[in-house]
Design a protein that fits this description.
By secondary structure, the protein is of the alpha+beta class. The chain has three helices and six strands; from the N terminus they run αααββββββ. The chain has a domain of 57 residues: Nucleotide Exchange Factor Grpe, Chain A, domain 2 (Roll). Strand 4 and strand 5 form a beta hairpin. The longest helix has 27 residues. It is found in: Cytoplasm.
Length: 137
């Protein structure tokens, strides 16, 4: 009888630990789905900032877009979302997705990222979206 009691008690303790760990994971990564939906909009804002403008109205509009993009990036940072450093870094298959490879040029090391097509992002220690990159081979 006591053996059954100890087993049941151990099972309850294990279940409690497992549930606590699951709750911690949920809290740690809450908002992940929302962040994934926001990232394409941030990409579009950054693409808009790459356009060259010459008239005053366009310059002012671009400045407004820059302020919005900066605000979104700051909000993401406040929620532990970081951009994955890529350009010039060694290719890491856990953080980068190679979409193209090019021959190594003078002064480059093999497996070095030479171009970024799309920025990648991490939420704490979890990759939300890998960076899409070109790798020198």
């Amino acid at each position: 009888m006591t053996d059954k009691y100890y087993r049941a008690e151990a099972e309850m303790a294990n279940m409690t630990k497992r549930m606590k760990k699951e709750q911690e994971q949920i809290l740690k990564y809450q908002g992940q789905d929302l962040i994934k939906e926001i990232l394409p909009s941030l990409d579009n804002l950054n693409r808009a900032l790459e356009i060259e403008v010459d008239d005053e109205a366009s310059v002012q509009l671009k400045k407004g877009v820059e302020m919005v993009a900066s605000g979104v990036e700051n909000a993401l940072k406040n929620h532990h979302v970081e951009k994955i450093a890529s350009l010039g870094e060694k290719f890491d298959p856990t953080k980068h997705q190679a979409v193209q490879s090019v021959p190594v040029e003078d002064g480059q090391e093999a497996d070095t990222i030479v171009q970024v097509f799309q920025d990648g992002y991490m939420l704490k220690d979890r990759v939300l979206r890998p960076a899409m990159v070109v790798v020198a081979q």
